[in-house]
Amino acid sequence: MTRTGRSLALAMAALVTIGACQGGRFGIGTSGARARWYKGNTHTHTLNSDGDTSPDDVVEWYRSRGYDFLILTDHNKLTTVSALSALYGQDPDFLLIPGEEVTDRFADKPIHVNGYAVDSVVAPQGGNSIVDVIQRDVDAIRAANGVPSINHPNFGWAITAEELRQVQRTRLFEIFNGHPLVNNNGSATVPGLEAAWDQILSSGLLLYGLAVDDAHTFTKPGDPTVAGPGRGWVIVRASVRTADSLLAAMERGDFYSSTGIELRAYDVSADAMTIRVRPATGRTTQVEFIGRNGALLERVNGPDATYTFRGNEGYVRARVVGSDGARAWTQPERFAP
Fold it and tell me: What are residue 214's phi and psi, to 5 degrees?
């Protein structure tokens, strides 16, 4: 597909998603013809910006651990993937996608927006307000035929839920980021990212939530004080392992996010949502179904749960909570706030 063709296809996918989700988006589970689940990380750094490891070693870390795809997102740098793809592209089970973390700011607030599969470096655009900066960067990423995702809103306490709600032409933002300084859980006065997500959804804007590494440090495995790899990822349901297919699926919300929990089934029908968790040694799980304003609709102890839609929830998403602290999040269904 040409770059222009890819841009048009992704834009059309986003438009289709808007219309479909207003009336309910069903059947994104395991029963689709030829579709399968692909594990990927969408936020990682190398020596080309402020990471501590070369691009080829970063790629090998993810490839050797069973990831299906990786997006490199160095700060204001489009790391070339052609040579890396020559090394690893012969592996039919691994895909490398170029990307960039467009790194901007307004006053003292850091504004970072990932551009997935951009075809050229996107310069930080600046602007007259936090919303204006984000919107200009999002629009510049779209102009470079990429897919935008808003990064770690609570980093530097930079972006509020109300500001996120005003940004147009994007469907993705981070609800979990593995960097130790991004304030995923908020503070006494600022909501955590999951609570902000519910505020945004309840206001009428559909956004899908990503879990990512934001890995910078590969030389200190297991050190929780550094931004290490393997802490957050997405599992995308797509028909083929290509950038076009994976990114279009993400913009449709055909994925779930995880920090360690794997689902063996995630199915949505016109009547119900079913979650089945793959067992892990030493871990027990609860499945929580959440609706408008973050209301807990139902909690089920155990690995399997089905929620029957009532019609007045506004939206329904599932959160799986592991006894070891691991989490998984599905995307909002039956979106009609």
Answer: 55, 45
16, pLDDT greater than 50 = no
274 has which bridge partners?
A: 267, 306
Q: Per this entry, what is the length of the chain?
A: 337
Nearest residue to 48 (alpha-carbon basis) of 95, 91, 25, 81? 81
Q: Are 18 and 125 a contacting pair, CB within 8 Å?
A: no
185, two tokens? 């859980």
Both tokens assigned to 189: 């006065």
Rg of the chain over Cα atoms, rounded to whole angstroms, equals 19
d(CA 228, CA 44): 9
- Report the amino acid identity of residue 296: L
What is the token pair recorded at 35?
Answer: 């579709």
Residue type for 317, please?
A: R
Q: Which residues pair with 268 in a beta bridge?
A: 273
**Strand order across the 69-71 sheet:** 95-97, 69-71, 36-41, 233-238, 255-258, 327-329, 317-322, 285-291, 295-301
Q: Which residues contact 218 (CB under 8 A, 6 or more apart)?
A: 51, 52, 53, 57, 58, 61, 228, 229
Structure tokens at 22: 């207003």
**Are 294 and 195 a contacting pair, CB within 8 Å?**
yes
Which tokens belong to 109? 């607030």
Q: What is d(CA 80, CA 86) in angstroms, rounded to the nearest whole number?
A: 11
Rounded Cα distance, 189 and 285, in Å? 30
| Amino acid of residue 291 | G
Contact yes or no for 246/40 (Cβ under 8 A): yes
* Three-state secondary structure call for residue 9: helix
Contact present, 337 and 203 (Cβ < 8 Å): yes
pLDDT in tens, 107-161: 999 999 999 999 999 999 999 999 999 999 999 999 999 999 999 999 999 999 9
Determine contact, residues 201/1, Cβ cutoff 8 Å.
no
Mean pLDDT score, 246-255: 97
Listed residue (170, 59, 193) closest to 115, CA to CA: 170
E strands in 168-268 = 172-177, 208-212, 233-238, 255-258, 263-268
